[in-house]
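Notes from the 1:1 (GR / supervisor)

We went over the backlog. Supervisor wanted to see one worked example end to end before approving the batch request, so GR pasted a single chain during the call. The sequence is below; no edits were made to it. Supervisor asked that the structure be written out right there so they could see what the output format looks like.
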Amino acid sequence: MAKGFMAVSSMVVVALLVFSIGVGIAAAQAAGLKKGFYKKSCPQAEAIAQKVVWGRVAGNRELAAKFLRMFFHDCFVRGCDGSVLLDSPTNTAEKNAVPNLSLAGFEVIDEVKAALEQACPGIVSCADIVALAARDSVSFQYKKNLWEVETGRRDGTVSSDQEALDNIPAPSSAFDILLSNFSSKGLGLQDLVVLSGGHTIGVGHCNLFSSRLFNFTGKDNPSDVDPSLNPSYAKFLQGQCRRNLQDLNDNTTVVPMDPGSSLSFDNHYFFNLKARQGMFTSDATLLTNARAANIVDKLQDPGVFFDTFKNSIKRMGQIGVLTGANGQIRNKCNAVNS
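Structure output shown during the call:
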């Protein structure tokens, strides 16, 4: 028993060491970022980006969730370097990986880039545009910035669909897997819970959670539902998704992640979670850990949520950034400079 305890203790020490190293690396990489990076080189950069994004979001409120997700998926693969925007003639770029096939809004990013190239050629990176688009689209409903965006990122030149598969957290992930994934990026438990709150806007595809609704234990019982789901919510989801088991791989049917409030960025997600109405396994699993569940309770206070979200997304925006002489400023966001 003592030997087992020592082994566990050693694993904890190693995990803490890896986490501290990750945090140190993240801090060093983020050293080139700062608020108002373009103040001298392109003073109107953020205003130009916001004008384009707000104009598009005004006509399509769903873009807020799409840009928030795009930013998250970009940062978790090779860091926040705009690599999620790159095209590949062989369809092997990040955007071609299964988790990214439902990403959208690339044409708006291109529109922002074109406007910035006209005003300040070769100055503003596509990576920074993604970060700004996430902030501006989510902030549109409040008509004020909900968080500060540090800028100064440069663009990456590599984009791999396999790296996207390896690094983007799956909606079927259990708690330990999620925490390990976030820790590897220099993010902590609170960041995991707080950033999960981004699911307060947007939709989920039925094929990503239908295994919780039908034949959950694999005993050929169509009415067999994940017991961690609120029964009424499970019935609602079943009604929204296809009931025929042969159609469970359908990737076109979507359901609002926060029914009745899927276009409003707020802390309603955490009330849903407490009511066992988290759509994905990765949502529900947050309640299986006492510390995470305690954070969920605290985030039911809107003031706490908004304060912690702006801090967590700032830390996420520092993951693996390229600054200084690293990377490049792409002329077009979907292609590396020739």
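Supervisor's comment: The chain has two domains: 45-167, 175-315.
Batch request approved.
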